[in-house]
Amino acid sequence: DTGVSQNPRHKITKRGQNVTFRCDPISEHNRLYWYRQTLGQGPEFLTYFQNEAQLEKSRLLSDRFSAERPKGSFSTLEIQRTEQGDSAMYLCASSERQVFGNSPLHFGNGTRLTVT
Amino acid sequence: AQSVTQLDSHVSVSEGTPVLLRCNYSSSYSPSLFWYVQHPNKGLQLLLKYTSAATLVKGINGFEAEFKKSETSFHLTKPSAHMSDAAEYFCVVSPVDDYKLSFGAGTTVTVRA
After folding, report:
1. Number of Cβ atoms within 10 Å of the Cβ of A33
2. Are strands A44-50 and A19-24 parallel, antiparallel or unpaired?
3. For B12-62, what is each residue's pLDDT tens digit?
4. Min Cα–Cα distance to chain A from B99, Å
5. Cα–Cα distance measured from residue B89 to residue B7, given in angstroms and rounded to the nearest whole number
6. CA separation for the pair B44, A93 (Å, rounded)
7. Which of A7, B13, B44, B91 gives B36 a disulfide partner, CB atoms 3.0 to 4.6 angstroms apart?
8. How far is Cα A10 from Cα A4, in angstroms, rounded to an integer?
9. Nearest to A33 by CA among A14, A6, A64
């Protein structure tokens, strides 16, 4: 178990540029999640994949945001035409499905985005 | 719908003294409850989870939490704080077998030498 890996750790970009983040989940986990955390707040749900299928997107995820998980393995989160309000920590998590009860999420160390 | 309220935004304790982090939740269903810890510039690490098996849940690093349905609470405790416990702690609720976690705003723990 090598844990959830996120790249890059930090990204500084100018307003209006596009950015892409990558997440590699724990290999046997079929569920993958993206959360966003702003300073002083708890993480907020953005989107969720089961295998390669994106099953839900939060209203927080505007049209400028897109997430993919080709082949049900790693995932990418792209933000187009970044705005200063997009500055946050973007967290990826994965879990395995249990028949009963929730399987806990395993989080990566996050990608901190700063939009200048 | 579910939500979480962490009653203290900041808790300061002396090393070796008990720690209490308070959490109240609301949920339309029988929830799963979790505590996560986040050290600076790190991801979230699961401390413990409650999924209706036992009301007193033991976690890692000496932490435990008690589920009290009548009080809709899930407070986190540790008998003796260590300097390494200084971090941000999040109480989290989710309906059973659902993927959408609702996080509290977090409690920052400071440990004084």
Report:
1. 27
2. unpaired
3. 999 999 999 999 998 777 788 999 999 987 889 999 988 777 889 999 999
4. 8
5. 12
6. 9
7. B44
8. 16
9. A6
